[in-house]
Amino acid sequence: MSGWGYALMTVSMVLFWALIILGVIALVRYLARGDRSGEQAAAPQATPEQVLAERFARGEIDEQEYHRRLAVLHDRSRPLLKP
Asked: How far is residue 60's CA from residue 69's CA, in Å, rounded to a whole number?
């Protein structure tokens, strides 16, 4: 074999092991990601009151608007208006 044969053999061996290592890393990451998706699906959703409180805390609505909307949320006997 000439010098090119040894060089090609070395490069192909490095590429082979690099592909094997990358495949193992990809497999581990894929399996780890599958475990996290179940935890995210079980997370409770925010109630309307919590969403309203977050908007007030961020400054999207003022105190008067916050209290008005909170009263509407707590007033269950009020009939719904049809659009």
From this structure: 13
Q: Are 56 and 49 in contact (CB under 8 A)?
A: no
Chain length of the chain: 83
Q: Mean pLDDT per segment of 10 residues, for the chain of length 83 residues?
A: 84 97 96 68 79 93 92 74 59
SS3 content of the chain, % helix, strand, coil (to 5): 75, 0, 25
Query: Hey, what are 65's tokens?
Result: 């608007």
Round to whole Å and give the CA distance between 34 and 8.
39
How confident is the model at residue 68, as a pLDDT? 93
Q: How far apart are CA 28 and CA 25, in angstroms?
A: 5
pLDDT at 34: 73
23 vs 74: CA distance, rounded Å: 55
CB-based contact 73:52 (threshold 8 Å): yes
